[in-house]
Specification:
The complex is a heterodimer of chains A (about 140) and B (about 425). By secondary structure, chain A is an all-beta fold. Chain A has no helices and 19 strands. In chain A, the strands form 3 sheets. In chain A, strands 2-5-8-11-14-17-19 form a 7-stranded parallel β-sheet, with no helix packed on it. Chain B has about 425 residues and is an alpha/beta fold. In chain B, the strands form 7 sheets. In chain B, strands 1, 4, 5, 6, 8, 9, 10, 11 and 12 form a 9-stranded mixed β-sheet that branches. A 7-stranded parallel β-sheet of chain B has the order 16-19-22-25-28-31-32. Classes of the chains: A mainly beta (about 140), B alpha/beta (about 425).
Chain lengths: ~140, ~425
């Protein structure tokens, strides 16, 4: 784990290849996760080789591998969904593998961003609590 | 299609300027950069350049190196054809004596070229930190129809006395060679990377072995002779990062260089992976109260104290209240509660007692035993040493390997020396 100027890490497990310039609290980071300057990760599990760009904020999320969280994006904002159909999420945000979240995106709690999501999948920069976005396959990108 | 390529890596030198770090291991086996050994860079350069047949010449304290290289698996060198072979001097053969110099080491291993028929033989040092695509060197060598090509890099003027310095003409041909000169017209240093025509190499080694006055060294004997004789000796100019980690100070500085935002080499480059043998360890545990900045912390470490500007190898424990600052701490060393480690190089498996201070006071006095290598204020602690609770170890001090608690009669002043039970000094 390489910790750079501005890093702040507490109560966390961080695997090899990590490169941390932001803050990480109560979280588990798999190998090769990069956390940009001013980013803040709390109460989350971030899987291998995901990149969290500067100033992004992640609170209560499970983020799969190879995800890119854009600059200043927020995962887990506001209150959890009151809809009982979302109870299974326990208020967590799930982000599928290979998703690319655009800069400034804001995702409410109890939401699921499907595998391979791209900027075009987000109609606005505000994803309200309880939103479920569908999966994509990487082959769609080849068209 | 040309024959498979072959490289010799020279890894047998004593490396005395690294003091304690290479007292009990060959310099190429000295830990570097939080998880590597120095030889990993050269070995990785080989396989990343497509060279999968390598002989490593060892002599001085090879056990650590042998264990690290093993069957060569991390480098994909555990092969049916080629792979890695550790070549140690042995009784009862032409190799039946200690290697006298680098050229002698190769001469005694010419047998390994008998059935290998590459056009060229690559000769490398196992103790430099750099990333280099040797294919470019091969292309340069062939384009110039060189008999031998020496990779060269520009060094600072104050460093020329530490290297072999080469002078080239405008076409890259080497016209002058001085081994460790005080003054020189050129600043191009030999990187210890040579590409020889196989036939020329064999001829020259046999010739050198028959030369009475020779010290059997590439830098001291063979290269100057070839240049003086007007052989086709070329210098290939390498402009990337290259670091000779031959001294404690350069070892310390080059480790520290990897802590910034802009490290000299990209250790994470997926196209040029630095492969190494590494044990499976759990991820780093950062506990509540931990503070860590500008540091490299390897797997298996547990941090509850403060770690600033430091390199922690796997399995280092820094408990609450402990501070590790601007230091290099190797595998499985345990820092005691409220202990302070400041500008120190601490080898593997050291126990630092609670409240101890390693690197105390100012750097006034050079080390008593090796003043020429330990005077910049670093404190060095050898492998397996045990430092009692509350002890203060001054700067430029040296605590030998496996020194026990009981060996200390009190604090160790700046420049002090506590020799270990097996110390060679």
């Amino acid at each position: 784990v390489l910790t750079l100027e501005g890093a702040e890490i507490e109560n966390s497990l961080i695997a090899n290849g990590g490169r941390i310039a932001g803050r990480v609290h109560n979280s588990v980071l798999f190998p090769g996760v990069r956390v940009g300057r001013g980013a803040h990760i709390r109460n989350s599990v971030i899987m291998a080789d995901t990149i969290v760009e500067p100033k992004a904020r992640i609170d209560g999320a499970i983020v799969d591998k190879y995800v890119r969280v854009g600059e200043g994006a927020v995962l887990g904002s506001g209150e959890r969904s009151s809809d009982t159909r979302h109870d299974w999420l326990g208020g967590l945000v799930l982000v599928g593998k290979d998703a690319v979240l655009p800069a400034g995106l804001e995702v409410g709690r109890s939401s699921v961003i499907g595998v391979g999501a791209r900027a075009r999948d987000f109609e606005s920069r505000q994803i309200s609590a309880g939103t479920l976005l569908p999966n994509h396959t990487w082959i769609e990108d080849l068209k | 299609v040309s024959a498979a390529r072959y490289a010799f890596i020279l890894a047998g030198g004593v490396g005395s300027r690294l003091c304690l770090l290479s007292e009990r291991r060959a310099k190429p086996a000295v830990p570097f950069g939080g998880k590597y050994r120095i030889i990993d860079f050269t070995l990785s350069n080989c396989v990343n350049s497509g060279i999968f047949d390598v002989g490593i010449l060892t002599q001085y304290r090879p056990t650590s190196l042998n264990q690290h290289v093993g069957t060569g698996r991390p480098w994909d060198l555990d092969r049916v054809h080629g792979g890695v072979q550790l070549l140690q001097p042995s009784l009862g053969s032409i190799a039946g004596d200690w290697y006298q110099g680098t050229a002698d080491a190769l001469y005694r291993n010419l047998i390994h070229l008998r059935r290998r028929r590459p056009d060229e033989v690559l000769v490398l040092s196992g103790d430099h930190v750099y990333q280099m695509d040797y294919n470019v060197l091969y292309a340069f060598h062939r384009a110039n129809r060189a008999a031998v090509t020496v990779a060269v890099t520009e060094v600072a003027p104050e460093l020329i006395s530490a290297f072999g310095i080469l002078e080239t003409d405008t076409g890259g041909r080497i016209v002058g060679f001085q081994e460790k000169p005080k003054r020189a017209r050129s600043r191009l240093a030999s990187m210890g990377v040579y590409l020889f025509d196989r036939e020329s190499l064999i001829r020259w080694l046999i010739e050198d072995a028959a030369t009475e006055a020779s010290s059997r060294d590439f830098g001291k004997d063979i290269l100057p002779r070839l240049v003086a004789r007007g052989e086709a000796v070329y210098g290939y100019r390498f402009t990337g990062y290259w670091q000779d980690v031959g001294t404690l100070d350069s070892y310390y500085e080059s480790n520290m260089a990897f802590l910034g935002d802009d490290p000299p080499l990209d250790l994470g480059d997926p196209d040029w992976v630095i492969h190494t043998q590494s044990a499976v360890r759990p991820p780093v545990l950062f506990e509540t109260g931990a503070r860590v900045e500008r540091s490299m912390v390897a797997n298996g470490c547990e941090v509850a104290g403060h770690v600033v500007g430091s390199v922690l190898f796997p399995g280092v424990v820094v408990p609450r209240g402990a501070v590790v600052r601007n230091s290099i701490v190797m595998h499985d060393t345990r820092v005691g509660r409220d202990a302070v480690v400041d500008r120190a190089i601490v080898d593997k498996q050291v126990e630092i007692g609670a409240g101890a201070i390693v690197g105390d006071g100012d750097a006034g006095t050079p080390n008593r035993a090796c003043p020429e290598h330990l005077s910049s204020g670093l404190t060095v602690v050898g492998k397996g040493a045990s430092l009692p609770e509350g002890i203060r170890i001054g700067r430029n001090a040296r605590v030998g390997a496996f020194v026990a608690d009981a060996a200390f009669s009190g604090d160790v002043p700046a420049g002090g020396v506590i020799d270990g039970p097996e110390s060679m000094h």
